[in-house]
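Lab notebook: predicted structure, single chain.

Context: the supervisor wants predicted structures on file for every construct in the current expression panel, including those that have not yet been purified. This is the next one on the list. No modifications to the sequence; it matches the entry in the shared construct table.
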Amino acid sequence: MWIGPLFYYLPKCVLACINVTSLRQMFLQFQDLPELWRISRIDFAVWVVTWLSVVVLSVDLGLAVGIVFSMMTVVCRTQRAECSVLGRAADTEIYKPVKYNSKCFEVPGVKILSYQAPIYYGNRNFFRDALSQLVGLEDIMKHEDQDLDHRIKMDISTVESSVSVLDQKKSTGMAVQAVILDCSGVSFVDSAGARLLIQVCAECQKAGVQMHLAACNANILQTLSFCGLMHHLPPQQIFVTVHDAASYLQQTMGNVEQKDPTIWV
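Prediction complete. Output recorded below exactly as produced.
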């Protein structure tokens, strides 16, 4: 700062040239904006907001506004993360979203879900809504309530009821019987997210759908254990990889179908 008074007597045009020269590198960055727009429009918005804040306000306030705006974009992206359905590529152990990969197919009777974001208090409702919509928990609960009311109102014989149960099993053979949640993209889970997973596991058990976890890191497992998830989800339903969980479910469901008794009328 001691050299500042030496510039006091310089003409304003000279001072303006000094400022323009010092800002030359910043103006050259405008050439990168088209490429930044193609790569990420969110990063483009962060750059523009930060630049306008620095120019209009000041350097310190502008940088602060840019940091806050960048943090808001990160929070918004984690809240609106996509919950995708995974399918298996034929004769491989690779699972990719079926929405973007036409050569990947879902495992019959198993819904494999992947969530590429942390599960915390800010996005727990979005995660629950997406999971319920993909699995169809609300529809399953609604059908079960209707079937319960129907069984209460109907007074039929044992043979007829047995035949109707067999017909129902045949018609719902491809229904969702188990859910595998791929946690490889979940970086962390807070207490609110852990309580939500407990609630989801309880709802799945009530609907007759088995809940399984795969590819959980140590921190997530520790948080879930402390929150009491193991009371609703035994260790046998936690797997190292998605393929291990899918193979186990295919074997168990195949054994159940072979042991299904036939009622002769």
